[in-house]
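Re: your question about SIRB1 protein

S., sorry for the slow reply, the queue was backed up all week. Below is exactly what I fed in.
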Amino acid sequence: AQKGQGFSVQQPQAKVSVAVGETLTLRCTTSGHARPGPVRWLKGWVTGNKTIYDQSGSFPRVTRAVVDSDTDFTIHIRNVQPDDVGTYYCVKFVKRDTGEDEVFKHGHGTEVSMHDTALVPGVLAAAVMLCFLLLLLSLFVTLCLYRRQRQGGVGSPCPSRTVAMGSFPSLPLQCCAGTPGTPSEDAESSHLPSQHSSKEENDIHYADLQPLPPAPRHGRSPGTAPTEYASLRVAAK
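Result:
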Protein backbone atom coordinates (compact mmCIF):
# COMPACT_ATOMS: atom_id res chain seq x y z
CA ALA A 1 0.00 0.00 0.00
CA GLN A 2 2.83 2.40 0.84
CA LYS A 3 4.42 1.67 -2.53
CA GLY A 4 1.34 3.01 -4.40
CA GLN A 5 0.81 6.23 -2.44
CA GLY A 6 2.66 8.41 -4.99
CA PHE A 7 1.06 6.87 -8.07
CA SER A 8 -1.22 9.02 -10.26
CA VAL A 9 -3.05 8.85 -13.60
CA GLN A 10 -3.14 11.97 -15.80
CA GLN A 11 -5.92 12.17 -18.39
CA PRO A 12 -5.62 15.76 -19.75
CA GLN A 13 -8.45 15.73 -22.30
CA ALA A 14 -11.82 16.68 -20.84
CA LYS A 15 -13.69 16.69 -24.19
CA VAL A 16 -12.82 15.56 -27.72
CA SER A 17 -14.90 15.95 -30.90
CA VAL A 18 -14.29 13.84 -34.00
CA ALA A 19 -16.05 13.05 -37.28
CA VAL A 20 -17.16 9.71 -38.56
CA GLY A 21 -14.26 7.79 -40.09
CA GLU A 22 -11.55 9.87 -38.39
CA THR A 23 -8.95 8.62 -35.91
CA LEU A 24 -9.58 9.40 -32.23
CA THR A 25 -6.60 10.01 -29.95
CA LEU A 26 -7.05 9.49 -26.19
CA ARG A 27 -4.15 10.62 -24.02
CA CYS A 28 -3.10 9.08 -20.72
CA THR A 29 0.15 9.03 -18.73
CA THR A 30 1.07 7.66 -15.32
CA SER A 31 3.64 8.65 -12.74
CA GLY A 32 4.99 6.99 -9.61
CA HIS A 33 5.15 3.33 -8.70
CA ALA A 34 2.36 0.89 -7.96
CA ARG A 35 1.89 -2.80 -7.45
CA PRO A 36 1.86 -4.95 -10.58
CA GLY A 37 -1.27 -4.76 -12.69
CA PRO A 38 -2.45 -3.68 -16.15
CA VAL A 39 -3.57 -0.26 -17.44
CA ARG A 40 -6.78 -0.38 -19.45
CA TRP A 41 -9.08 1.99 -21.30
CA LEU A 42 -12.75 1.64 -20.37
CA LYS A 43 -15.77 3.18 -22.02
CA GLY A 44 -18.26 4.12 -19.32
CA TRP A 45 -17.97 3.70 -15.59
CA VAL A 46 -19.62 1.86 -12.72
CA THR A 47 -22.14 -0.21 -14.68
CA GLY A 48 -22.10 -1.13 -18.34
CA ASN A 49 -18.44 -0.28 -18.90
CA LYS A 50 -16.65 -1.79 -21.86
CA THR A 51 -12.95 -2.51 -22.26
CA ILE A 52 -11.61 -0.57 -25.26
CA TYR A 53 -7.94 -1.42 -24.78
CA ASP A 54 -5.98 -3.79 -22.58
CA GLN A 55 -2.28 -4.52 -22.53
CA SER A 56 -3.15 -8.09 -23.27
CA GLY A 57 -5.62 -9.13 -25.93
CA SER A 58 -6.46 -8.10 -29.50
CA PHE A 59 -8.14 -4.80 -30.39
CA PRO A 60 -8.03 -4.32 -34.20
CA ARG A 61 -8.98 -0.62 -34.27
CA VAL A 62 -6.86 0.43 -31.30
CA THR A 63 -3.08 0.97 -31.23
CA ARG A 64 -0.68 2.40 -28.67
CA ALA A 65 0.94 5.74 -29.45
CA VAL A 66 4.15 4.70 -27.65
CA VAL A 67 4.55 0.94 -27.86
CA ASP A 68 5.77 -0.87 -24.71
CA SER A 69 5.93 2.34 -22.65
CA ASP A 70 5.42 1.93 -18.89
CA THR A 71 4.18 5.51 -18.39
CA ASP A 72 2.50 6.61 -21.65
CA PHE A 73 -0.76 4.79 -22.37
CA THR A 74 -2.08 7.10 -25.12
CA ILE A 75 -4.11 5.20 -27.72
CA HIS A 76 -5.43 5.79 -31.26
CA ILE A 77 -8.87 4.50 -32.29
CA ARG A 78 -9.25 4.27 -36.07
CA ASN A 79 -12.42 4.68 -38.15
CA VAL A 80 -14.56 6.22 -35.42
CA GLN A 81 -18.30 5.47 -35.66
CA PRO A 82 -21.36 6.97 -33.93
CA ASP A 83 -21.37 4.05 -31.48
CA ASP A 84 -18.01 5.26 -30.17
CA VAL A 85 -19.58 8.34 -28.55
CA GLY A 86 -19.20 8.23 -24.78
CA THR A 87 -16.82 8.88 -21.87
CA TYR A 88 -13.50 7.02 -21.75
CA TYR A 89 -11.40 6.33 -18.64
CA CYS A 90 -7.76 5.40 -18.30
CA VAL A 91 -7.63 2.95 -15.38
CA LYS A 92 -4.76 1.41 -13.43
CA PHE A 93 -5.50 -2.05 -11.99
CA VAL A 94 -3.54 -3.98 -9.38
CA LYS A 95 -3.53 -7.69 -8.63
CA ARG A 96 -5.18 -8.93 -5.51
CA ASP A 97 -3.81 -11.84 -3.53
CA THR A 98 -6.55 -13.91 -5.12
CA GLY A 99 -5.21 -13.04 -8.59
CA GLU A 100 -8.15 -10.84 -9.54
CA ASP A 101 -7.67 -7.30 -10.94
CA GLU A 102 -8.80 -4.44 -8.73
CA VAL A 103 -9.20 -0.77 -9.71
CA PHE A 104 -6.41 1.24 -8.13
CA LYS A 105 -6.34 4.65 -9.87
CA HIS A 106 -8.16 6.20 -12.82
CA GLY A 107 -8.26 9.43 -14.76
CA HIS A 108 -11.04 12.04 -14.76
CA GLY A 109 -12.45 10.77 -18.05
CA THR A 110 -12.57 12.09 -21.63
CA GLU A 111 -15.98 12.82 -23.17
CA VAL A 112 -16.03 11.96 -26.89
CA SER A 113 -18.62 13.55 -29.21
CA MET A 114 -19.22 13.55 -32.96
CA HIS A 115 -19.49 16.45 -35.40
CA ASP A 116 -20.76 16.51 -38.98
CA THR A 117 -17.95 16.68 -41.54
CA ALA A 118 -20.31 18.24 -44.14
CA LEU A 119 -20.56 21.44 -42.12
CA VAL A 120 -16.94 22.45 -42.49
CA PRO A 121 -16.71 22.15 -46.32
CA GLY A 122 -20.12 23.81 -46.65
CA VAL A 123 -19.09 26.84 -44.62
CA LEU A 124 -15.79 27.02 -46.46
CA ALA A 125 -17.50 26.90 -49.87
CA ALA A 126 -19.96 29.63 -48.82
CA ALA A 127 -17.09 31.85 -47.65
CA VAL A 128 -15.21 31.36 -50.92
CA MET A 129 -18.33 32.16 -52.97
CA LEU A 130 -18.99 35.30 -50.93
CA CYS A 131 -15.42 36.53 -51.44
CA PHE A 132 -15.72 35.89 -55.19
CA LEU A 133 -18.98 37.86 -55.43
CA LEU A 134 -17.51 40.77 -53.47
CA LEU A 135 -14.52 40.80 -55.81
CA LEU A 136 -16.76 40.90 -58.88
CA LEU A 137 -18.83 43.71 -57.35
CA SER A 138 -15.75 45.80 -56.58
CA LEU A 139 -14.43 45.32 -60.12
CA PHE A 140 -17.79 46.35 -61.60
CA VAL A 141 -17.97 49.50 -59.46
CA THR A 142 -14.39 50.41 -60.35
CA LEU A 143 -15.11 49.98 -64.08
CA CYS A 144 -18.24 52.13 -63.88
CA LEU A 145 -16.39 54.92 -62.07
CA TYR A 146 -13.56 54.78 -64.59
CA ARG A 147 -15.92 55.01 -67.59
CA ARG A 148 -17.87 57.86 -66.00
CA GLN A 149 -14.64 59.74 -65.34
CA ARG A 150 -13.50 59.26 -68.93
CA GLN A 151 -16.84 60.40 -70.36
CA GLY A 152 -17.02 63.37 -68.00
CA GLY A 153 -13.49 64.52 -68.92
CA VAL A 154 -14.19 64.45 -72.69
CA GLY A 155 -17.73 65.74 -72.98
CA SER A 156 -18.09 68.20 -70.11
CA PRO A 157 -17.96 71.90 -71.09
CA CYS A 158 -15.27 74.19 -69.78
CA PRO A 159 -16.20 76.65 -67.05
CA SER A 160 -17.36 80.03 -68.21
CA ARG A 161 -14.73 82.75 -68.63
CA THR A 162 -15.18 86.52 -68.39
CA VAL A 163 -13.45 88.74 -70.96
CA ALA A 164 -13.13 92.54 -70.76
CA MET A 165 -11.62 94.32 -73.77
CA GLY A 166 -11.30 98.10 -73.86
CA SER A 167 -14.69 99.72 -73.68
CA PHE A 168 -16.55 96.43 -74.10
CA PRO A 169 -18.41 95.31 -70.97
CA SER A 170 -17.30 92.18 -69.13
CA LEU A 171 -19.21 89.29 -70.64
CA PRO A 172 -19.18 85.63 -69.60
CA LEU A 173 -18.07 83.42 -72.49
CA GLN A 174 -18.57 79.69 -72.85
CA CYS A 175 -16.03 77.44 -74.50
CA CYS A 176 -16.33 73.89 -75.62
CA ALA A 177 -12.78 72.67 -75.72
CA GLY A 178 -12.44 69.05 -76.70
CA THR A 179 -15.90 68.87 -78.28
CA PRO A 180 -15.58 70.30 -81.80
CA GLY A 181 -18.77 70.61 -83.76
CA THR A 182 -20.97 70.86 -80.66
CA PRO A 183 -23.36 73.85 -80.92
CA SER A 184 -23.13 76.41 -78.12
CA GLU A 185 -26.03 76.79 -75.74
CA ASP A 186 -25.65 80.57 -75.65
CA ALA A 187 -28.48 82.29 -77.51
CA GLU A 188 -26.28 85.11 -78.87
CA SER A 189 -23.65 82.75 -80.25
CA SER A 190 -26.17 81.37 -82.75
CA HIS A 191 -25.99 84.71 -84.60
CA LEU A 192 -22.23 84.79 -84.91
CA PRO A 193 -20.69 84.10 -88.30
CA SER A 194 -18.94 80.80 -88.79
CA GLN A 195 -15.19 81.01 -88.14
CA HIS A 196 -12.64 78.52 -89.42
CA SER A 197 -9.13 78.66 -87.99
CA SER A 198 -6.16 76.37 -88.16
CA LYS A 199 -5.08 77.36 -84.63
CA GLU A 200 -5.90 75.44 -81.48
CA GLU A 201 -9.54 74.65 -80.87
CA ASN A 202 -9.61 76.26 -77.45
CA ASP A 203 -9.34 79.86 -78.84
CA ILE A 204 -12.23 82.11 -77.85
CA HIS A 205 -13.98 84.22 -80.50
CA TYR A 206 -16.01 87.29 -79.70
CA ALA A 207 -18.11 89.24 -82.16
CA ASP A 208 -20.19 92.35 -81.68
CA LEU A 209 -22.49 93.84 -84.29
CA GLN A 210 -23.29 97.53 -83.94
CA PRO A 211 -25.28 99.69 -86.38
CA LEU A 212 -23.24 102.34 -88.24
CA PRO A 213 -24.38 105.93 -88.59
CA PRO A 214 -26.40 106.64 -91.69
CA ALA A 215 -24.31 107.00 -94.83
CA PRO A 216 -25.09 107.89 -98.37
CA ARG A 217 -26.63 105.08 -100.29
CA HIS A 218 -24.58 103.76 -103.18
CA GLY A 219 -26.59 101.07 -104.82
CA ARG A 220 -27.62 99.29 -101.67
CA SER A 221 -30.81 97.40 -101.79
CA PRO A 222 -33.62 98.96 -99.78
CA GLY A 223 -34.09 97.66 -96.27
CA THR A 224 -30.43 96.64 -95.72
CA ALA A 225 -29.06 98.11 -92.49
CA PRO A 226 -25.36 98.82 -92.39
CA THR A 227 -23.46 96.82 -89.75
CA GLU A 228 -19.98 96.59 -88.35
CA TYR A 229 -18.28 93.31 -87.45
CA ALA A 230 -15.47 93.10 -84.96
CA SER A 231 -13.69 89.90 -83.99
CA LEU A 232 -11.54 89.39 -80.94
CA ARG A 233 -9.54 86.22 -80.30
CA VAL A 234 -8.35 85.42 -76.82
CA ALA A 235 -6.42 82.24 -76.00
CA ALA A 236 -8.24 80.15 -73.41
CA LYS A 237 -6.24 79.22 -70.32
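The mean pLDDT is 75. The domain at 8-114 is CATH 2.60.40.10 (Immunoglobulin-like).

Happy to talk it through on Thursday.
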